[in-house]
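Researcher: Before we compare anything, I want clean individual predictions. No alignment, no superposition, just each chain on its own. First chain goes here; please echo the sequence and then give the structure tokens.
Model: Echoing the first chain and its structure:
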Amino acid sequence: MIAKTTPQTIVLPFYGYAAVSLCVAMSLLCLSVQAFTGHYFHPHILAVTHSMALGWGTMMILGASYQLMPVITESDLFSETLAYVSFFAAAAGIPLLVYAFYVFDMGIPAQAGAILINVSVACYVINQVGSYTRSRHQNMHGLFMVAAACWLLLTTLVGLLLVFNFSNNVLSKDSLYYLSLHAHMGIAGWFLLMIVGVGTRLIPMFLLSKYESAHLLKIIYWFINASLIAFVILFLGQAPPDWYFVPITGLLTAILQFGYYCRRAYQERIRKTTDTPVKLSLLSIVMTFLPVLLLLSLLAAPGVSSGKLALFKAYGFVIFFGWITTLILGMTFKTLPFIIWNKRRYDAVVSDKKQGPGNLYSHKWFAAMALVYMTGFSVFLTGIFTEQISFLQTGSVLLLIASLLFNLNVAKLFMHQPVHT
């Protein structure tokens, strides 16, 4: 059986939803700058974080992985119906949860949102596992994606318990205590595993590099999973803080190996010129080290102080607004143009070379977006450490402008019409 491309009606809604969610998250950020001068467990910060983690990062990755899993495994998607259900459940659940956090109402809205998100993720996991297990080409990239999906489900299940714990005391301690467990299962288990698995496939492909190493991928895979399992065991066992250096060292080792993999792919590339989206994606790989360094600083910092609270906020900001977002901003304009072009080329005979995937979006808009975004990111991060409202306000406005430029370019792609002959 020849693998077929996932229908656009499955993939594009995820991309569109994620793009709009990015604008929503940046708008919430502009309205919440004052919250970033206080404690990190603030309703508005929680709303912004979940809007970025779920509405932006997760929805974009879900859409991309529905497209990529059949390509990577050379097999059809397990169930198109489950894919549609996963979209609609998440699309309904995420706004409910974000709204609940913003007004800090952990009643019906939060609980309904959390349940819908878990329904969505469960459908996604079944689809990923089903697609992988019945495929003809089970490789490490697909295994990374399956493992990441399973960690995502564990993350959302813990999140569901935390939501109900606010009003029903279903856990032995308060929800703030379990926040670290919930967050790091998602960051390392979902985002890191998925980014490594997909990145080690796409980056060499976009660079036209022949480099690949299944052995190195296995090492990275087991280092990440072993480190994450060790972290969960240490957390549940209430181990002393010093013990956490063990899983952090394991994650740092995996990230170093991931960086080495991408460096080898870059060195052995056939295409010597690198376009801006790939450059931004490569920058995100360098930024992968920043959260680890901040985490080590947090463990080394004694007691609770304003400086340590700033490190907590910077840690989350660098992860969601730096590492994850810079990668997605770059990869979107390497994957989405091809998805649209690949479908439209069957609908028309293209008579113009300018109709190729790389010419379906505005490179000037992309370059402007990248510049404005990285400037806004740097200014806002400075504001977190200095607690200067002027820096936070300026940075948030720049990030909002960048998100609008991103949406304009995505809209341009969505509205593209091929030239008929």
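Researcher: Okay. Second chain, same rules.
Model: Second chain and its structure:
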Amino acid sequence: MQIWLNDKAHHVESAVDLSSLVEELTLPSESVAIAIDGQVVPRSQWPQTPLTDGLKLTVFQAIAGG
């Protein structure tokens, strides 16, 4: 399946929901936020949010600094 990840086409191997996508991409789940069509999906809903072909996701990573 192909999704759009931060405006770039990305082929998904085995992920079926947002939680498994975070694992597949080896992202640190505690420091990322994911939006679908501009709407942030709460982390608690990642396992229930299915991936579909052509889905447009934006991944934001927390940056610490001062």
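Researcher: What stands out in the second chain?
Model: Residues 2 and 11 are 4 Å apart (CA to CA). Additionally, The first strand starts at residue 2 and ends at 5.
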